[in-house]
Amino acid sequence: MECDTCGRDAVHHAAYSGRHLCGEHLCESVERRVRRRVREDDLLPDDATPADPQRWVIGLSGGKDSVVLTQILSETFAEDPRVELVALSIHEGIEGYRDESLAACERLTDDLDVTHETVSYAEEFDVRMDEVVEDDPENMAPCAYCGVFRRDLLEAYADEYDADKLLTGHNLDDEAQTAVMNFFEGDLRQMAKHYDASLGPFPDRNPTDRFVPRAKPLRDVPEKEVALYAHVRDLPAHITECPHASEAYRGEIQETLLALEEDHPGLRHSIMAGYEEIAAMAADRYRSAADHDGELSPCEECGSTTAHDVCRKCSLLRSLEAA
Questions:
Q1: Does residue 183 sit within a domain?
Q2: Residue 244 in 3-state DSSP?
Q3: Residue 202's pLDDT is what?
C-alpha cells in the first residue's frame, strides 16, 4: 500500500476519504485540519496584538489527544507573539496512573518550552479519586465524580489565568459519541451547549460573570489518526486507560459507531454535520429569555454560578464528607 501523495509506504488508509497516507503526509493532514479549525472557529481574533496577546489554556492530561493538540498548537504559534499557551494538568489522585502521565506532560512542555501548571483534587477539594471510588456515596460511576471535579478546575484555573480560550483535546470519535448519547437521551440543553458553550448552565449566565469560551481544535480528526500522529512523531503520550474508567454506556456507543463506520465510511463526519444543525436550533431556543426557568445565583459553598443553591461539585463534596 503506497501513499497517494508521494508513493512511499502508507501507514494509514482513511476510508472516509479513500486516501492512503505515509507517516509524513498523515501528520500534515492532521495539522492542516487542526489549523483550519482554529481559523474557522475564529480562535485568534483579528484585533489580537503582541501587546495584548491571546492566552489559551490547554487541558493537558498526558494522553494522546491533549499531547497532540499541545504539540500542533505550539509549533503553529511558537513564533507568533499574539498567542500565549499555558498547559494545565490535573492530578485526580489515582495512584501510579496520573503520576506517569504527568511525567509525560513535563517532558512535552519542557521540549516545547510551554508554561505548565499542575493542580490536584487533593489540594483543591481534599479528595482523591482512589478514595472516592471506595466511598461512592452517590452510587455513581467514578467518571461521573471525576468529570464534575475536572470541569470545575479547568474552568476555575482558566479564569484565574485570565485565559481567552480553554482548549481541550476532544477528537472526532469523542464528539460523535457525545452527539449520539445526547440525541438518544433527548438532551436539548447539552446539544445547545455543544453548539455554543458560552450559554453555560441554564438559565444563561449573568452577562457580568466571567466565562472562558471552550474550543476543540481536534474535533475533525478521528481518534485513530490522532494516535498514529503521536506514534509517528514519537510524542511522550501516556496511552493507558484509567484504572477506574467505567463509562459502560459510552463504551457501547463507541463500539457501535466504530462498527458502523467500518461499513459506512464517513458516518462520524455525517453525524457531526447533522448534529451541529440540531445543536444550533437548540441554542437558538435557549438564548430566548422566555425559555429560562429560573435565576442563577452564587453557590452557597464556593460562590460559583449555579442554577441551584449548591453547585454539583459542592453537592458531591458534601456527600463524600458525610460518607
A1: no
A2: coil
A3: 40
Helix ranges restricted to H, 161-266: 172-185, 188-195, 223-232, 248-263
Alpha-carbon distance of 35 to 218, in angstroms, equals 9
Contact 91/120 with Cβ under 8 angstroms?
yes
User: Domain holding 133: CATH number?
Assistant: 3.40.50.620
Instruction: Name the percent of the chain lying above pLDDT 90.
Output: 67
Residues 6+ apart with CB under 8 A from 17: none
| Tens digits of residue pLDDT in 234-292 | 999 988 888 887 667 888 999 999 999 999 999 999 999 999 898 888 888 776 644 44
Domain that holds residue 124: 46-170+216-245
3-state secondary structure of 91: strand
Backbone angles phi, psi at 257, to 5 degrees: -65, -40
**Interatomic CA distance for residues 114 and 184, integer angstroms:** 40
In a domain, 311, yes or no: no
pTM: 0.91
Contacts of the segment 299-306: beta carbons below 8 A, 24+ positions apart: 304/152, 304/156, 305/200, 305/201, 305/205, 305/206, 305/209, 306/201
DSSP class of residue 52?
Answer: B
| Candidate from 38-42, 57-61, 210-214, 286-290 with smallest mean pLDDT | 286-290
b/e string for 41-59 if b means 16 or more Cβ within 10 A?
eebbeeebeeeebbbbbbb
CB count, 10 Å around CB of 309?
A: 12
What is the distance between the alpha carbons of residues 299 and 201, in angstroms, rounded to a whole number? Answer: 13
Kind of pairing, strands 115-120 and 83-91?
Answer: parallel
pLDDT of amino acid 35: 97
Count: domains in the chain: 1
- % helix, strand, coil for the chain, step of 5: 50, 10, 35
- 194-208 pLDDT per residue, tens: 766 544 444 334 433
